[in-house]
């Protein structure tokens, strides 16, 4: 196994692929470097002398500047590196668009829907409009397990604390996300469960849904019936009966929309798992499919790479707004824009937000940006889409599902068991995690560190996603995990 990696030719640091001790002399692409400090696995060390105030280069881009003079072979991390990032910026468009060559079409086994979308699951969902009926939804989920089978693959409830005591945009976010999920192709049937006195009522959700297949959705207001459990079970049985005869059929990969997310990142995420996801993204887009990149605060520091991949000035302007609007959101709430990376990220070797962002954006591959989506907006254009949502794992993954993702790919260097409303594929950045948490991890991208080539690993991931889309369960599904979280942006009354 290689001990070090210099990612780009102009980098002033290299990454330790295994824990290295002071005094060790390393050959870094023909350059001899003797370590003067210990360097943990996933962390960086200097390849040359870096003066205080000079930029430190990784991935071919600055990840910050030196706080003090840094010597060759010295550990580079938060103690001697600080961010160069600032608040809202003015950007220039320098288009550098690479169109992908179309690939031979491939298929998966899915569930075609009347609106032309395709589900990769045929599940029965219970969506509370307000937190007051969360426990009712949970009881219904348990009781409705008797309906599973013969076309009904599972029954899930998605409790949340919102739907009332919200105002303006904050309230609209809740309504739109619930409406998006109520019309999601992975749901063969949906019960929208309301209380009756909430702000985001059943009628509001229905209005936000637009056109929908009436055979797949039922609505119930608990205050309007004597026994909400009994009446809800009748509606769930109706929905289940409508799903009984549905079978998987071959569907083109162009019908897939896949969300791209990372969390609990480490120093390997940007050189294994995220590039593997990027390779997958390019393969799917070459099939005519779509991917969605989100967690906007973790684009800060790498945003110009995405901006230059915008095909038009209009898309460039939308991407500038995507970035600066999120910075403004932080400022309006009197928060530091660059309160990132997290303690776990730092322990894994990520030092600044630029360091994290340049690794995160590897998930987008090299395809041009085709559209920029607002929070809660569904994908309309095939190809790479950028979505406005925060970095929080549950909130961002739910946003990806709401925008149409049938599956979310989630890279991690430290591991997490959570799930989203759709199958959530956990991709380990290192072999240690993949072996240690095999009950969480679905795909091992750490193989890149032991000889597997990136194009081959990306194809492996493509093949795996097609199997998941065809019904193979991921670890979180086997464990019975499913979660959802809505972006809270305003006051609570």
Overview of the structural elements:
There is one protein chain. The chain is α/β, with parallel strands linked by helices and 493 residues long. It folds into three domains: 4-82, Roll (Archaeosine Trna-guanine Transglycosylase, Chain: A, domain 4), CATH 2.30.130; 123-245, Rossmann fold; 253-478. It has helices at 134-143, 168-182, 202-209, 228-243, 273-286, 303-308, 313-332, 343-347, 353-360, 393-402, 431-436, 454-469, 475-478; strands at residues 4-5, 13-16, 25-28, 31-34, 44-46, 55-58, 61-66, 75-76, 81-82, 107-112, 118-119, 123-128, 154-157, 187-194, 217-221, 249-252, 257-262, 290-293, 369-373, 383-387, 407-412, 424-428, 443-444. The strands form six sheets. The protein has a seven-stranded parallel sheet with strand order 19-20-18-17-21-22-23, with helices on both faces. A four-stranded antiparallel sheet has the order 1-2-5-8, with no helix packed on it. A hairpin with a 2-residue loop joins strand 3 and strand 4. Helix 1 crosses helix 4, helix 2 (168-182) crosses helix 3 (202-209) and helix 2 (168-182) crosses helix 10 (393-402). The termini are far apart.
């Amino acid at each position: 196994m290689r001990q070090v990696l210099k990612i780009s030719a102009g980098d002033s640091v290299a990454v330790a692929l295994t824990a290295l001790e002071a005094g060790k002399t390393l050959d870094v692409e023909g350059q001899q470097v003797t370590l003067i400090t210990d360097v943990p696995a996933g962390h960086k060390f200097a390849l040359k002398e870096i003066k205080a105030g000079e930029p430190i280069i990784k991935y071919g881009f600055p990840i910050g500047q030196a706080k003090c003079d840094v010597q060759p072979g010295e550990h580079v991390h938060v103690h001697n590196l600080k961010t160069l990032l600032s608040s809202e910026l003015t950007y220039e468009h320098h288009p550098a668009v690479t169109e992908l060559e179309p690939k031979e079409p491939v298929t998966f086994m899915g569930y075609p829907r009347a609106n032309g979308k395709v589900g990769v699951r045929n599940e029965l969902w219970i969506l509370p409009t307000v937190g007051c009926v969360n426990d009712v939804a949970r009881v219904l989920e348990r009781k409705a397990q008797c309906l599973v089978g013969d076309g009904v693959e599972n029954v899930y409830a998605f409790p949340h604390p919102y739907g009332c005591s919200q105002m303006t945009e904050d309230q609209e976010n809740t309504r739109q996300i619930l409406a998006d999920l109520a019309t999601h192709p992975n749901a063969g049937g949906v019960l929208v469960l309301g209380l009756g006195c909430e702000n985001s009522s059943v009628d509001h959700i229905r209005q936000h849904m637009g056109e929908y297949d009436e055979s797949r959705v039922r609505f119930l207001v608990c205050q309007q019936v004597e026994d909400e459990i009994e009446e809800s079970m009748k509606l769930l049985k109706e929905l289940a009966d409508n799903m009984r005869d549905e079978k998987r059929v071959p569907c083109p990969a162009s019908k897939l929309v896949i969300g791209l997310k990372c969390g609990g990142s480490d120093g390997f995420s940007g050189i294994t798992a995220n590039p593997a996801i990027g390779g997958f993204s390019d393969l799917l887009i070459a099939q005519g499919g779509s991917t969605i990149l989100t967690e906007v605060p973790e684009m800060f520091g790498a945003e110009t790479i995405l901006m230059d991949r915008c095909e038009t000035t209009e898309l460039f302007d939308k991407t500038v707004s995507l970035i600066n609007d999120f910075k403004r959101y932080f400022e309006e709430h009197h928060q530091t824009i660059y309160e990132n990376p997290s303690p776990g990220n730092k322990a894994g070797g990520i030092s600044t937000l630029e360091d994290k962002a340049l690794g995160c954006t590897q998930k987008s591959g090299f395809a041009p940006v085709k559209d920029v989506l607002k929070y809660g907006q569904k994908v309309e254009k095939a190809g790479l889409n950028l979505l406005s949502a925060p970095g929080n794992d549950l909130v961002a993954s739910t946003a990806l599902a709401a925008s149409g993702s049938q599956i979310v790919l989630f890279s991690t260097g430290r591991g997490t068991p959570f799930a989203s409303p759709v199958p959530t594929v956990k991709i380990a950045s290192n072999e240690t995690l993949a072996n240690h948490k095999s009950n969480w991890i679905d795909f091992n991208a750490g193989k890149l560190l032991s000889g597997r080539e990136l194009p081959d690993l990306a194809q492996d991931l493509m093949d795996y996603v097609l199997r998941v889309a065809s019904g193979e369960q991921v670890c979180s599904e086997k464990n019975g995990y499913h979660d959802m979280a809505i972006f809270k942006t305003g006051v609570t009354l």
